[in-house]
User: What shape does this take?
Amino acid sequence: MNQSIEAAAFHYDKLIGRLIFNSSCRLLWRSEIDQGKNLLRYLDENRVSSLQVHLQGSVFFDLNSALLFYQIVKLFAKDRQKSLVVFTRDDVRAQRQLIEVALKLDPRIKLEFTFSEDFKPHHVQVA
Assistant: This one.
């Protein structure tokens, strides 16, 4: 059984429930977009209840990558028992914009802000 789902824009580790978006998030090709759909299907069908999304290294999101992130937020917003934690940096404009929209979709998202290149999280809860 494959323990990960990967595309050019992301890597999802099924064992630890961690999704990492790459520095330049682009889902351009049909096969990459299909991998995004596979990820959403996996999260939904397997009733994944906890997900860590790491955006810290990302500086660009194309439309398809941003939509994938928003679809994940909406999927987790449907069930209050699910936990979505997003690791982000406030000094990256693309991440701030993504988080701003995501918080409108689900204000219960837990955010972990990182402030340095070593990506050590500092907990900030947004209610």
